[in-house]
Structures are given as C-alpha cells and as structure tokens.
Amino acid sequence: MRSTELAVPAENTVRALRRLAPGARLREPRTPELRVLAGALRDCAPPELARAHPGPVARAVLTAQLRALDRAMTGFFAADEGGREAARLVRAAIFGKVRQARPLLDRLHTEPGLRTAALAWADVLGYRILAGELRGARERPGEEDGRLAAELAVAALLPRAEAGTGGREVLLPWPDGGAGAPPSASGPVGVPPSGGAGDAAGPPLGAGGGGTPDPGDRGSPPPSAPAGGSAFLHVRSVRVTDRGFRVDVHADPPVELLRDGDGLTLRALWWNGLDRVADDLGHEYLLLARDHAGTGTVRHWCHPRPAPGAGVLRLESAGYRGERVRLAPASAGTCAEVLVKLELTVRLGA
Fold it and tell me: Has residue 37 got a pLDDT over 60?
C-alpha cells in the first residue's frame, strides 16, 4: 500500500532531514502517532520503525488503510483494485441499513455484511492491519508497515511545494563554459556528504531547521569536468524562491528504433529525476515534488533556500527506466529500472 506521494523514497528524505540546511519550515503532524513517529525517525531507520514503535506504527497504518477503504467504498477511487471483492464492497456500502454519515469503524462494527465485504477486500489487497482489526485479532506490524508509517510521518512533515514561476536565477556557468556540467560517469563524481539512507543516528529533526553537519560530511570542490561529461542531463535553471528553490534539468536519454527480423524494436531510456540534493557545506535539501511535464525538462521543488555560504549544489540522479517494445508483427515489451547513478554539480551566484 502506498497512500503518499513523496517525490523520493522515505529513506532519502529521512537522511536529508538529519542534515537539513538552516531555515527549513516543517509542518507539525496532526495526529499523536505521526508526531511520535516523526520524532523516532531522528535515530531510527524506516525498516526498524515497526520493531521499535509497534503501537504508533499500527495506528498510523490502520488510519491510512481505513482511509483507503472509505475511498474504495465510493466506487470512484482505485476501482480496478480488488476485483470482485471491490465490487461487493461498493454494493454493501450503498445498500447498508445504517446511516452512512456515521464514522466508518462504527458502520463496520454494526453492519455484518459491510464488515464481511471489507474483510475480503482487505485480504485481497494485503492490508494485514485492517484485516486484523476487522477480525478482532490485531496483527503485529511488520517491516513493510514500518516503511509505510515512515512515509506517512515524512509526508506530514514536508511543507507544500510553492506554486508560481517566479524566483531569482542563481545558476552560474563553470569556467569551462558548461553550466551544470556533470562529472564523467566513469571517473570521479565528487565527494557527496557521507552516510547512507539507513543511518542509525543523526542530528534531530527540528521544525526550525536541520542539524549541524559532521565535519566529515563536508564535500570537496567539484572536479573539473568537460561539458560533455554526460550527454543526457543538463541543468538549465536554479531559481531561488521565498521558501526554497527550483531546479530544472533537461534529460535527453537515447532512443533507438531497430529492425529485428520481420519487425521493429524500440529501445528507450526515461529519466526518473533527481533523488538527492546537497551542497558543498554538507547540508542536504528536501525534494518536495517533481514534474516531468512531458517536455524533456524535469522541474524539482526543493526546500529550504540554499544555505548562506553554499557555492555548489550536488544533484544526484535517481537513475533511468529502460523500456524495450517490439512493434510488429505482435506488440510485446519489457520495462526495467536501470540504476545508473550520475551526479551533477552546479555553481550558485549571489
């Protein structure tokens, strides 16, 4: 189950929160369990959350699964999930004898037909926590439940991406003339802040800004790289706004149309966007949203504004999605994630 719309994996956002640049404005989670989980992510990796805090994880996941159930009962959302059980759930919700304005859990406890339909629907979709609640035998949350709870807590912390197209351009060209020229994929790619997505410890997550970077996290100046270090990715713009900045990256991955026997085969790579933004002071930035827009240029909304004194941004690619489609005589195709990591470095002006 994925009920959040994070731009990057929760592990990446948790890592960024521990090294967050100053000036961040995080939101306050609305529910007690999400506040507990947000605090626990200061020193607990998402896969370990269910083992360390089973109660808050179970309540947060149950709330999310009840919300999904409530939407599915209308018949308009995720109608293709659940198959026949989803159709039975909609019928039971429509023809129930209890007033529909009552809270959902009250309806489930007082309408046996609706509870039976909801239980079958939950079993089909693998919603263990909700199924256990409906059976009266609560399930202990597992690792996947912990990951989902981490996503929910992170989503409750992140501010909204800014609307509009304004902002001040701060992108500077490199001395060799290539703006945002990435290092060669086969050579050194600079020194990003150390630490993985699952770090067990880090500075606390604070609503007024991020933690102080460790001395060992400070990056070195980017290596000199020719503008043709990567022919696929080019940083077009870095604009500072009131609460953050936007990064526009143009992606031009290769596409090939080949003759394959008596037919044609299309092979293409599609770029997934950035999944990490850091600076040369060791701070990291939150990726709030990404917009591919079908134009070849991917826009990224980042928070907060670049830290005072930061002169270089390091932009780490999330990799590519590879597709292979046979066009004739019969349509067939495959799709796979291509984990090609690239790092772009850009200079910032005043």
Answer: yes
Confidence band of 320 (pLDDT split at 50, 70, 90): confident
**Residue-averaged pLDDT of the chain:** 78
Q: Do 343 and 183 meet the contact criterion of CB atoms below 8 Å apart?
A: yes
Quote the crossing angle between the two packed helices 112-125 and 128-135, to the nearest 10°.
150
CA 14 vs CA 42, 205, 296: distances in Å: 8, 9, 29
Higher-pLDDT residue of 258 and 144 is 144
Q: Model confidence over 268-295: pLDDT tens digits?
A: 777 888 989 999 999 999 999 988 766 7
Contact predicate 17/157, CB 8 Å: yes
| Nearest-angstrom CA–CA distance, 124 and 248 | 41
The structure tokens 């989902």 sit at 148
CA 105 from centroid of its chain's CA atoms: 30
Beta pairing, strands 171-172 & 297-303:
unpaired
Residue 193 contacts by C-beta under 8 Å, 6 or more apart in sequence?
19, 213, 217, 218, 219, 278, 282, 283, 284
- The span from the CA of 34 to the CA of 236, in Å, is 38
For the chain, the first-to-last Cα distance in angstroms comes to 44
Query: What is the pLDDT confidence band of residue 109, given thresholds at 50, 70 and 90?
Result: confident
In terms of DSSP bridges, do strands 343-348 and 312-317 run parallel, antiparallel, or are they unpaired?
A: antiparallel
